[in-house]
């Protein structure tokens, strides 16, 4: 039963990968979030073709907003998939240079709130409230620390 469930979920995940190799994020303002987490799941289950394509998408600098949270996610994806260490290195440098004096990282509005009827917020900007930032920087900072820890272990 669990195997069947995993197969159904993985089939759905593969079928929603976009032509340019990323996954669309529903709650997040960038596709980096959904792509990083889809990569993590697929790489553990041997979906090498999908992982390769999505990792190449993550490695393209134009696809990654200059936002610490998204930089951190992209570093994690590159390190976990042992790809493009040069790009990971430059993103780590960028991440470290943007660290605040108190040890945290700044954030921007990264969480979006589509109307429940809006099933494709990447096509329609209908929201029930404005996009939110990580006001205390905890989620952003913990994501940055996690990425730097994984980078250090590489």
Describe the protein in words.
Helices cover 53% and strands 0% of the residues. With 154 residues, it is an all-alpha fold. The chain has one domain (2-153): Glycosyltransferase. Helix 2 (32-44) packs antiparallel against helix 3 and helix 2 (32-44) runs parallel beside helix 4. The protein is globular.
Highlighted features:
Glycosyltransferase; mainly alpha; single chain; 0% strand; 6 helices
CATH topology grouping? Glycosyltransferase
The average pLDDT is 91
- Radius of gyration equals 16 Å
- Give helix and strand order, one letter per element, not per position: HHHHHH
Domain unit count: 1
Name of the level-1 CATH class: Mainly Alpha
For the record, give the distance between the C-alpha atoms at the N and C termini, rounded to a whole number.
Answer: 36 Å
The major pleated sheet works out as: none
Topology:
Blueprint: H1 2-15, H2 32-44, H3 48-59, H4 68-80, H5 85-97, H6 138-153
Helix pairs in contact: 2-3, 2-4, 4-5, 4-6
Offer a concise description of the structure.
With 154 residues, the chain is an all-alpha fold.
